[in-house]
């Protein structure tokens, strides 16, 4: 395979693989939109993060997240509790009992839900068949009912104010419909095509070419001269006109044939 063909194939595959990786994330991100308020974790897989959406109702936030990435299941509209089910996470949206104008967005891993939530509470919002699929037919093992009521229905772990490292650990988000990666906290613009404030790793800035470009000049009238660096349309045309436009003549000899002057 020629080298330039191989290079072209690689250039086409890189964006395609990147889009597949982004599509495989499976759930929307709230890390760059809302502040991280509280964190609970037991090991690497049992995690819960709580974000605050100020002055937004539960249905408003549910619609916003569903528009970012369609969930496998979404509970019916409710002003106090709504759930969005994704393959790897459960989004529990709940009205803050201490500040009813705000919505708390609790993002729980499957292991956290399995080991903490009350099954009967979840079944009041999510179909039992969906829960069976999410947890492979296993029931949850706790009495937890969400962060807003954690002091009454306690989880097995404890929540704490996120550290600087935990805030930095939140992954970058994707911009809807643009296929680019936005790196949080970037403020500088790079002129070498690297990731900067725009965050687009697929778009490289290119300086406009300062070199002059050639021109095609058509001859007018009978002039056959052309300027340096240009091409005459008369010389390059394959449909040149005949040297003479006089009528054809018959060849002497009485045969009556018509010949074209050369």
UniProtKB/TrEMBL annotation:
Location of the region described as Disordered in the Swiss-Prot/TrEMBL record: 146-262
Bias type Polar residues, positions: 185-197
Signal peptide as annotated in the record: 1-31
The keyword Manganese is assigned to this record: no
Alphabetized PROSITE patterns for the sequence: PROKAR_LIPOPROTEIN (PS51257)
Biased composition (Low complexity): 209-248
Keyword Chaperone listed: no
One of the Pfam families matching this protein, by short name: DUF4247
Family matches, as InterPro entries: DUF4247
Annotated keywords: Signal
Name assigned to this protein: DUF4247 domain-containing protein
Organism of derivation: Brevibacillus brevis
């Amino acid at each position: 395979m020629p080298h330039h063909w191989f290079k072209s194939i690689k250039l086409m595959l890189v964006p395609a693989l990147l889009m597949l990786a982004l599509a495989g994330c499976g759930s929307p991100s709230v890390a760059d939109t809302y502040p991280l308020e509280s964190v609970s974790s037991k090991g690497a897989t049992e995690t819960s993060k709580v974000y605050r959406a100020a002055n937004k109702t539960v249905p408003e936030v549910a619609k916003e997240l569903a528009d970012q990435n369609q969930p496998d299941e979404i509970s019916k509209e409710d002003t106090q509790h709504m759930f969005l089910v994704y393959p790897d996470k459960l989004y529990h949206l709940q009205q803050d009992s201490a500040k009813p104008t705000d919505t708390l967005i609790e993002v729980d891993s499957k292991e956290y839900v399995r080991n903490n939530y009350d099954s009967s509470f979840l079944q009041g919002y999510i179909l039992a068949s969906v829960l069976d699929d999410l947890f492979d037919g296993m029931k949850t093992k706790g009495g937890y009912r969400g962060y807003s009521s954690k002091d009454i229905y306690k989880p097995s772990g404890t929540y704490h104010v996120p550290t600087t490292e935990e805030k930095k650990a939140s992954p970058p988000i994707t911009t809807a419909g643009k296929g680019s990666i936005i790196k949080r906290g970037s403020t500088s613009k790079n002129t070498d095509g690297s990731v900067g404030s725009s965050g687009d790793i697929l778009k490289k800035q290119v300086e406009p070419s300062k070199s002059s470009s050639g021109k095609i000049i058509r001859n007018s009238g009978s002039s056959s001269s052309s300027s340096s660096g240009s091409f005459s349309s008369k010389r390059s045309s394959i449909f040149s006109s005949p040297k003479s436009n006089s009528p054809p003549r018959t060849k002497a000899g009485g045969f009556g044939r018509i010949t074209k002057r050369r």
